[in-house]
């Protein structure tokens, strides 16, 4: 095992449930010994594949897979310009695959390599999203029945598009909701069919905040305060409105309020801190240590929401978990559908081994995804359980993965961008 070398680095691009996943498979000179890593950046997958195939792979062939730290540093420094999502995801695919190999060589699950279990399983939150309050309520009840104790709630805003829930149609229009004339544009969906076809929707901050507050109020009065609720603002509203919203939702005792501001508006968190105790979750859009270190050391956030592949994989993430522990910040690694099951398995290894774990986001895996990735972490009664196999404990059925190749997308498959009612671009 000592003389083992990296023999091949493969990029597997697959979308079993319509989300473009990018997986790295590192094969070694030891027959049957390989590792998997998540490099998923669904909005720019081809760029990540090129970064791996054209730039990292030549650095890796014939190297020893043992030296994960050294390889990470070399990959990270070798582009001179660094810290972008494309390069970090590429580095992550390699990094996680090397950790997977390390665990397989040791015969230990990765949480054991990271110091061992601090908990048996990781509490997860699932999403209850609906076009209107009734639909959210139904999904909320169902998730409660299924044993979830932490539920994220998002609702559509009448007459507008928004993040996390299908828009619904009609609705009263108020003077603060922006000009009416934009509704003449054919970008505004008038019915469900058009909504599916749309490239852009119309988003206005005030109507969104009104409907989000109504929803939170309804959920608390219907289900009480003995269940944890979460909400994602998705960096969509003007910062000072965010400050007001954080104060306004304090009474609903959220588990956390997420992405109240964009990373560019980091400093607004100071204001929020001075004015209320709504727990702040932030970070899926961070990819540079100079963005997140100040937030941790000044205790401006409560949960770090970083997307592990977006900062370069497990090597930087486990250091970050340690930094957060020192400052009382809990982990809440990003776990949407566009974190592949391999990425979820990586999140879970840190969840299990980090004392300062807070919560794990879980976007329920589709059936086809589960078939492509045997060993997907299992969720039962609101907890994600490790399967205790060596390494990440997850595999890929390559033959099946190839049956779901990447498809072309409108606009190259970027994020749907909503516009304001006057036609200007809003943050996604
Ligand atoms: C979340 C996220 C995601 C992102 C998505 C972008 O789950 O908290 O905000 O849904 O929007 O990962 O591709
Ligand atoms: Mg989010």
The CATH homologous superfamily of the domain at 122-390 is named: Enolase-like C-terminal domain
Beta-strand residue fraction: 5-15%
Overall number of strands: 13
How many helices?
14
- Characterize the biggest β-sheet: 10 strands, mixed
Unreliable segments (pLDDT under 50, ≥5 consecutive)? none
The string of secondary-structure elements, in order, is EEEHHHHEHEHHEHEHEHEHEHEHEEH
Shape: globular
Bound molecules: D-gluconic acid, magnesium ion
Tell me the helix content. Answer: 25-40%
Q: What name does CATH use for the topology of the domain at 122-390?
A: TIM Barrel
The CATH C-level name of the domain at 122-390 is Alpha Beta
Q: Which architecture of the domain at 122-390 does the CATH hierarchy give at level 2?
A: Alpha-Beta Barrel
Given helix and strand content, the structural type is alpha/beta
Question: Rg, please?
Answer: 22 Å
Describe what this molecule looks like in 3D:
The protein is α/β, with parallel strands linked by helices and 428 residues long. 36% of the residues lie in helices and 14% in strands. Strands 4, 5, 6, 7, 8, 9, 10, 11, 12 and 13 form a 10-stranded mixed sheet that branches. The protein has a 3-stranded antiparallel sheet with strand order 1-2-3. It has 14 helices and 13 strands. The protein is globular. The mean pLDDT is 93. It has helices spanning 45-60, 68-77, 85-106, 110-113, 133-145, 192-197, 205-223, 239-248, 268-275, 289-297, 314-326, 341-353, 367-372, 398-401, and strands at residues 6-14, 21-28, 34-38, 122-130, 150-155, 228-232, 256-258, 280-282, 303-304, 330-331, 360-361, 378-380, 383-385. The N and C termini lie far apart (47 Å). It has a domain at 122-390: TIM Barrel (Alpha-Beta Barrel), CATH 3.20.20. The structure holds D-gluconic acid (GCO) and magnesium ion (MG). Magnesium ion binds next to loops. The site of magnesium ion (MG) has 5 residues, from loops.
């Amino acid at each position: 095992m000592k003389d083992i070398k990296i023999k091949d680095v493969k990029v597997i691009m697959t979308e079993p449930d319509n989300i473009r996943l990018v997986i790295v498979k590192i094969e070694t000179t030891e027959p049957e010994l390989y590792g998997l890593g998540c490099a998923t950046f669904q909005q720019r997958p081809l760029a990540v594949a090129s970064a791996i195939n054209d730039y990292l792979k030549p650095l890796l062939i014939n190297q020893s897979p043992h030296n994960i730290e050294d390889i990470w540093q070399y990959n990270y420094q070798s582009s001179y310009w660094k810290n972008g999502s494309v390069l970090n995801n590429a580095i992550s695919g390699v990094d996680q695959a090397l950790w997977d190999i390390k665990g397989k060589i040791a015969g230990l699950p990765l949480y054991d390599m990271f110091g061992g279990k601090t908990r048996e399983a990781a509490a997860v939150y699932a999403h209850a999203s609906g076009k209107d309050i009734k639909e959210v309520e139904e999904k909320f009840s169902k998730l409660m029945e299924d044993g979830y104790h932490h539920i994220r709630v998002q609702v559509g805003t009448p007459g507008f598009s928004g993040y996390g829930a299908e828009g619904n149609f009609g609705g009263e229009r108020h003077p603060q909701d922006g000009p009416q004339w934009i509704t003449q544009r054919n970008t505004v969906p008038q019915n469900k069919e058009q909504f599916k076809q749309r490239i852009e929707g119309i988003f206005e901050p005030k109507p969104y905040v009104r409907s989000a507050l109504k929803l939170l109020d309804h959920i608390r009065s219907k289900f009480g305060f003995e269940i944890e609720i979460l909400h994602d603002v998705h960096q969509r509203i003007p910062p000072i409105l965010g400050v007001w919203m954080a104060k306004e939702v304090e009474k609903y005792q959220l588990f956390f309020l997420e992405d109240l501001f964009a990373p560019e508006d980091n400093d607004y968190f100071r204001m929020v801190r001075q004015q209320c105790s709504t727990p702040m979750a932030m970070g899926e859009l961070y990819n540079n240590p100079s963005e997140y270190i100040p937030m941790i050391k000044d205790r401006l956030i409560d949960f770090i929401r970083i997307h592990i592949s977006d900062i370069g994989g497990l090597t930087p993430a486990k250091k970050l978990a340690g930094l957060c522990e020192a400052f009382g910040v809990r982990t809440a690694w990003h776990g949407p559908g566009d974190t592949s099951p391999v990425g979820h398995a990586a999140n879970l290894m840190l969840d299990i081994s980090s004392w300062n774990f807070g919560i794990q986001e879980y976007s329920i895996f589709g059936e086809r995804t589960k078939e492509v990735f045997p060993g997907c972490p299992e969720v039962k009664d609101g907890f994600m359980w490790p399967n205790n196999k060596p390494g990440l404990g997850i595999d890929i059925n390559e033959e099946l993965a190839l049956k779901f190749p990447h498809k072309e997308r409108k606009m190259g498959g970027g994020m749907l961008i909503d516009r304001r009612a006057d036609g200007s671009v809003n943050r996604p």
